[in-house]
Amino acid sequence: MSDAQLEILASRAGLAVDWIDANGRPQKVAPAVLRNVLIGLGHPASTAQEIDASLLELQAVQQDRHLPPLLTSDVGVGLDLGRYFAPETPCEIHLEDGSRLNLKLDSEAVLPGLIPVGYQQVHISDQYFTLAVAPERCFSVGDAVDNPIPRVWGLSAQLYSLRRPGDGGFGDTQALEDLVRVAGERGADAVAISPLHAMFSADTGRYSPYSPSSRLFLNSLYAAPGAILGERALRDAIDAAGLTERFAQLEDLKLIDWPSAADAKQKLLQALYEGFIAGDHPLHPDFASFRHAGGEALENHCRFEAIQEMRAARGENLDWRQWPEHWHDPRGAALEAFAEEYAERIGYFAFCQWLIHRCLERAQTAARSAGMGIGLIADLAVGADGAGSQAWSFQDELLASLTVGAPPDILNRSGQGWGISAFSPEGLIRNGFRAFIDMLRANFAHAGGLRIDHVMGLQRLWVIPNGSAPADGAYLYYPVDDLLRLLSLESHRHQAIVLGEDLGTVPDGLREKLSARSMLGMRVLLFEQDNTHFKPILDWPDNALATTSTHDLPTLNGWWHGRDIDWNARLGFVDANGEIEWRHHRQREREGLRSALSQDPQNFREESHEADQVVDAAVRFLGHTRAPLVLLPLEDALGINEQANLPGTIDTHPNWSRRLPGNSEALLDGADAARRLELLACARLQAAERDQ
């Protein structure tokens, strides 16, 4: 079998045969790995004959002169259509506003750059396609706060960690409303929240917000039903379901008991639904309108939820890839028959989606009413579970046979497997980027901003065949320019900023592409150092947000005290010698950070605990940087030791289960939090005065 032909096929399929690792060393993907990844992409490659056949098929598709359903371009820039049409061919453009443009391709078959921003319909020689014309850049922080040189701040919060009386054991949108109101009163312009993607209602033990069932819909457990249906309906439903004592017990826990709390919340939602459909409720028209607007995508998600519920009750496999073949097609006759038989359950899941959408809409309205220029910043996970609703509903556009992860590096010598699926580049193009656009619209819908986890995935992702080790993967490349144009377009349409989490190994040129589109990168205080020498204030860039930490890192207080080292040593991730070396290095880092923070004479003047002073000084330090937006995690505002998630663990560390110590409406009133927010607000004002 010829490795040369295999590598040609891999390259044509968008795979990187050669790549550079985190140490700067060139690497080559093994032929066996290439074959397995290609099979996952839908290109058989086990034999020489299969390779030749797959190569011929792929070449035919790539050389096809048939127009794809959607092309992208930048406003004011011509679009080369020479592959499809002859020079000087007349064309008619149907604009979104109902008007038309009559143009002609130029002598080189370029469509003139005279078409306005938007999704415009192009008619040329009896062929039609959608042209997505993108603005030059995304809606920016400056646009949001009406200041060309913004120096604003906000908070970041793990939604589940918030508290309020009657929350049932984990944070919800009412607790979020309480938080955005008090944060807005103190001058915050944004609150960034953990992902609210739809999870698996029939499998409540799966609660990592970064491994969702679907990024098109929301986790209905976070709904605060009383805010929509009224407190009386809520009390009646709690009584009817016998949940009063159970909710009180769940609320008293320091850690969230997800299976029990989710079960209780689902019982409440079921009781509310039964009451809602029993009478002539004034919100029936709104629910009906929501369901109609949701269309096929909402219907498919609700059918999926109902099927999983039914199979869970029977003790059957929940992974759709293991279902009977006739249930694999969401549009098949078997699903139509199921939908008719289980209409009530499908209606229930639609009701749950309606509730959480209306609740999140309220929270964003509350944020803007509190004076925030941005409001909520939603979080978009890098992928969705291959066994979930989104992968089932969009099988031609998602790669359910491959998972996403990371290759081996200095910190993870075996690589990482994240257990989630990604988009198919070929499927996206073939379907006019439908699934990507729908996903963006769903996540922009009730937010003033969107954080994109692992933004490098817009250009390339490390994909691993199901069942293989993380090291046995390859980089798959995406049409990054098309995706960035669509992001810019949707950002402007929703008047929402875009943040790209660009920590780790970033492909050459990507940060420049993001910056040119006004997509902010991300800079974390703990990483902004060169071997314990921390970057000075004015060396921080003005094209990235600044923050003290993230959900995957120790809190600042925890870092100072070495809690991350404690956990890694306890779980055996580092041996005794490694632990000693790590602690010695951490001491040097502490000295380096204190040295950098001491450059401000206002720091370390109080007679208080050293760690508290470090957090105060770090908050002031970040406030003085040139970052357009500084986000302070609530854990650091409160001086908490423990982090939200410890990567590499599942049940040996309480990931996604920690709760904050007080109710949201009073959370910022404590001495530490109030002082730090005042320090941050003042530092941001001083930075604004300096940089204007």
UniProtKB/TrEMBL annotation:
Its EC number is 2.4.1.25. Belongs to the disproportionating enzyme family. It comes from Pseudomonas fluorescens. InterPro entries: GH, Glyco_hydro_77. Signal peptide: none annotated. One of its GO terms (molecular function) is 4-alpha-glucanotransferase activity. This is 4-alpha-glucanotransferase. The keyword Phosphoprotein does not apply. Gene3D superfamilies: Glycosidases. The gene is malQ. It holds the Pfam family Glyco_hydro_77. GO terms for biological process: carbohydrate metabolic process. It comes from the Bacteria. Keywords: Carbohydrate metabolism, Glycosyltransferase, Transferase. It catalyses: Transfers a segment of a (1->4)-alpha-D-glucan to a new position in an acceptor, which may be glucose or a (1->4)-alpha-D-glucan. It is an enzyme of class 2 (transferase). The keyword Glycosyltransferase applies.
